[in-house]
Design a protein that fits this description.
By secondary structure, the protein is an alpha/beta fold. Helices cover about 40% and strands about 10% of the residues. It is globular. The termini are far apart.
């Protein structure tokens, strides 16, 4: 049987900055004997709202595995991306804010154009700058075998958008427990709990998770409150970020120690592209 991690080029390896896609990157590098072919590119797209721990984790993966990871950020230019690095990466939501100002709107659960523009568009733009048109290269994404609905969405998007997304973790029957076991055996790890990854107060995180984040890190929601105030809309359909913060301030002891809604979904190339 062909090794699903032996990804041949031209290919884009989407590294979201989470444990699952980090494990996928490790296995792809291992399948190639420690060195990727020149036409297999590992890309990380920074929205400016990733946690500092995520940025340092991505950098450490590259350093420890002797791997070139290309860091990208969305720009409102013809190329639609800029290459950055650990030191120059945005940390105050600059790419996200610029996109909101351009769209004069906020993304939400039914219009997730934040992922499309801040993650997918820069990666595709980078590949185009190398001479690869969309559909002419493979896109490896960190979807596990236990993420069935997202896998179906990925395959549907392949058909609709003329893409070649593949999920080597799913092909290898990898589930979340396998990923966590791998990282327990490593000398380093992402220094975040599963629900703290991706954008720091993402509206797709459950209400209980956002309450927990607001309690643990009161400064995190402030950027999101500012954007809601500037646009006059909300990221979530049911409540504003301010309402969540006010609730936490009124009832701090009623928030559970552990969120009841688990969130370890990694924002990346499997999401739908929206205009």
């Amino acid at each position: 049987m062909t090794n699903p991690y032996l990804i041949t080029g031209p290919a884009l390896i989407s590294f979201s900055g989470g444990r699952t896609s980090g494990y996928m990157v490790h296995e792809i590098v291992r399948a190639h004997g420690g060195t990727l072919p020149d036409d297999v590119h590992v890309l990380f797209a920074n929205t400016g709202k990733e946690r500092e721990e995520t940025l340092r984790y991505v950098h450490e993966c590259g350093s420890r595995w002797n791997l070139r990871i290309v860091w990208l950020e969305w720009r409102d230019t013809d190329e639609q991306f800029e290459v950055v690095g650990l030191n120059s990466a945005s940390r105050r939501g600059e790419p996200f804010k610029a996109l909101i100002e351009k769209k004069k709107a906020l993304p939400n659960g039914t219009a997730r154009w934040c992922t499309s523009f801040l993650k997918i568009v820069p990666m595709h733009g980078y590949m185009k700058s190398l001479g690869y048109e969309q559909g002419t290269y493979r896109e490896a994404v960190g979807l596990r075998h236990d993420e069935g609905l997202r896998l179906l969405t990925m395959y549907a998007n392949n058909e609709r958008d003329n893409r070649q997304c593949v999920a080597p973790l799913s092909k290898s029957k990898i589930v979340k427990a396998d990923v966590m076991a791998f990282w327990k055996g490593q000398p380093f790890d992402l220094a975040l709990r599963s629900w703290e990854g991706n954008c720091d107060f993402c509206f797709n995180k459950g209400r209980a998770i956002r309450e927990r984040i607001a309690r643990d890190n009161p400064d995190v929601p402030l950027w999101w409150i500012g954007e809601e105030s500037a646009i006059g809309k909300t990221f979530a359909m049911r409540e504003s970020v301010s309402e969540i913060v006010e609730y936490v301030q009124r009832t701090p002891m009623l928030i559970p120690d552990d969120p009841t809604e688990e969130h370890d979904v990694e924002c990346g190339l499997h999401c739908e592209v929206a205009a």
